[in-house]
Amino acid sequence: MPRTRLGRLALVLAVAIALWTWPGGRAFPFFYYLAWIAFLGALLGVGYRAFSRRFMWQLRNRLIVTYVFIGVIPVALLLIMMVVVGLLLAWQFSTFVVTTDLRNELQRLESANRSITHQYAHLLRHGGKLENTQLGLNNEAFPGRQVTAYVHGRPTLLMGDAPHALPASPPSAAPESAIVLDEGELYLRAVNQSHYGPGEDDRIVIVSSIPLDKPHLEAIEASMGRIEVYSERSGDSAAQHKAANLSIGDTDIDISSSPKVSCGKLPPPAWRMDMELTSFTPVQNVLHWQTGSARHLLMIVRTRPSLLYSRLFRTLGEWTSAIYIGLAALAFVFALIEVAAFVIGMRLTRTMTLSVDKLYKATEHVNRGDLTHRIAVHSHDQMAALERSFNSMTGSLEKLIAEQKEKQRIESELQIAKEVQDLLFPRDSADLDGLELHGICRPARTVSGDYYDFVPVGSSTVGLAVGDISGKGISAALMMATVHAFVRAHTLAEKLPVGARAGSAVGVAASNAAGDAVGDPAPGTVLAMLNQQLYRSTPEQKYATMFLGFYDQRTRRLTYSNAGHLPPIVLRATGAVERLEAGGTVVGLFGDMVYPEGALELAEGDIVVAFSDGITEPENDYGEFGEDRLVQIVEENRHLPLPRISEAILNAVIDWIGGEEQPDDMTVVLARAR
């Protein structure tokens, strides 16, 4: 089975052609016609699909089709219905007028004939004679009238000429008035009877006839256009021209030859749309005088709306033209309203379609990456608000993309700064034979404001530095790099030969070591020098906390000074806990500060834990993480390698804060004597 509509259409067409060409296919016409109907339906479906894809894609075309279905088609259908109803009413009215006038003429003839019948019956009762007696007979009311009296079946001509034989005795079932077909001629005939004696045969029958010819028909139907009356064809001629006959009941009406009776003429049109209207109506129950049977005639009326209008409103007299003018004015007003509605609808449609077209073109600009394109707004409707919203959106997108590019640039620079900062942290453990060292820093952002370093000093001494810069982000990272450089420079300056540092104007007293070299640097001296440098070179609000210690493995002695940093914790192998609190205030905030020093000896298995406030100060619903939990974690894992202990500490802090954002940089430095 084909999957596409075109394939199914081809299949249906092939089946239809096969049924047509198959010799026995016409024996099953239902299936044959069904196949062709299916083919036409599929063809219409494919055509509609192609039409909708090509033509209905644009909103303008969709609105045009919508207006056609909503506005044009209903109006057109109403106009067609009005025209059809008007034509039907005109046709019916024209034939109604003619038949009504004929019926009125028959009733008038019957009334006059009834009066004559009563008068002659009264005459016969009193012994009068019919011959040479005319009672109330007046030919002015009915020109061409013929009046015949029948007494005992004998006809007597009372009035009129007798160019033909007198009418035969009327049929017993003849109506009082009717259109009569007598010897091939048409008459308006009235038949009335009255008894003048006691006997059953003592009755008189009066028959009045008016020939239904052209003069009389024109007198009856004046100013109605052209009227034609067709009667039945008789004899061999009817058989020869059977195809040209129109059957009404059991009567074959001859419509191929000249009409039986015709009168009047169609006047020229009174106005441009005064067209010809042709209507027809059967005239039933026409009496065939000789046989008494009913026959039918066909009456055709050719007229114009102006004639019908004049006939309809002829009772208004002079007001007829006023009504005509009023109707014309009303039609003109309706036409103006329709034109105005059409123009307004087209203008509204144009504003909508133009807005949609501008929005579509603007989206194409955006799709090409052109966010500088703006829609020109000239109105103050909802579509204009949508256009302004689009302009605002593209402006916001342009600004957002610029900000995103700037953010990416900053992130790239921060990533470079992070890579540089990672190089500042010690990559080697700098372990001594008598001391294990390990440090880790987890920034809260891309770069860190925490600082730690292991500084080798000679072959048997190592410097241990841990610091925290005020603030976070790139400014803290830059100051951290400054502190790192200062610590390294000052520490190395303390180990330079005397001649090399004579011009440095540092002003630090020499140690008691022999030779050209000075002894190990003092942590308090280094912090004092660092404080002076930061105080002079950094803003007032920038400062740092610092713990600096030097461990000599020969004497197992740790000399330190704490500049406002959280006191490191010493966990003795015996279970005792000490805090390294000797020192002074932060560095960089005040000038000419002095930093006292402290010292202690480390036994084998003792662990020094130095940390930043990002370890102990994170909070949750139960409060801060605190130093007690830190000591507990180190105690529980002190037998593990130092990297494992550091990892356990960081994991515990992260679990403590849960899914919240890391509030501060987290730094842990561990040193274990061995």
Briefly, what is this?
With 674 residues, the protein is α+β, with helices and mostly antiparallel strands.
SSE layout and pairing:
Blueprint: H1 5-21, H2 29-54, H3 59-125, E1 146-151, E2 154-159, E3 177-182, E4 185-195, E5 203-211, H4 214-220, E6 226-230, H5 236-240, E7 245-248, E8 251-254, E9 261-263, E10 277-288, E11 294-303, H6 305-312, H7 319-367, H8 382-424, E12 435-442, E13 450-457, E14 461-469, H9 474-494, H10 498-501, H11 523-537, E15 544-552, E16 557-563, E17 569-571, E18 577-579, E19 583-584, E20 598-601, E21 607-611, H12 613-616, E22 619-620, E23 623-624, H13 626-637, H14 642-657, E24 666-673
Parallel strand pairs: 3-10, 16-19
Antiparallel strand pairs: 1-2, 1-5, 3-4, 4-5, 6-9, 6-11, 7-8, 10-11, 12-24, 13-14, 14-15, 15-16, 16-20, 17-18, 17-21, 21-24, 22-23
Helix pairs in contact: 1-2, 3-7, 7-8, 8-9, 9-11, 13-14
